[in-house]
Amino acid sequence: MSELNTVKFATIFNELIKEFPNVPHDAIEAALEFKMVASKMQLEREEMFQNFGITPGRFHLLMILKGEDGYILSPSELAKRTNVTRATMTQFVDALEREEYVKRTDDPKDRRGMLVQLTDKGIAKLKEILPHYFKKMTEFTGDLSAEELETLLRLMKKIQSNGLN
User: What is the value of pTM for the model shown?
Assistant: First the structure.
């Protein structure tokens, strides 16, 4: 949302919320502000990933595999951990396999099953992206003091524990 659209939205919001006196205005404003910040962060992340020819979802999949023993998991477990459907996971794996970032292997525990394994090329891609990713993530909070970061983190965890999955 552009700065002008954000200001316009805030003006409209402030007018409309007056019609609902029982709604805690500050809570709604904080949630909307949180959403706008998250949206801006997501757009900047997507742009950064685009420069590396990968989507955020595929990057996330590579990161999950990197954290596993043998860098290997089943597609259904990957789908569960990334909160996507199995069909979407198949598309992710197909695309990453074409790039040779992952490979499919037979599941030794299930003759009908298949596993997805991170390749050396996939590890190299992560090593290429991660310094830029970490830099981008720290830019988002770069103006905050250590105390402010601690408070922000504590508050975000509290918000998450209030029913967000």
Answer: 0.78
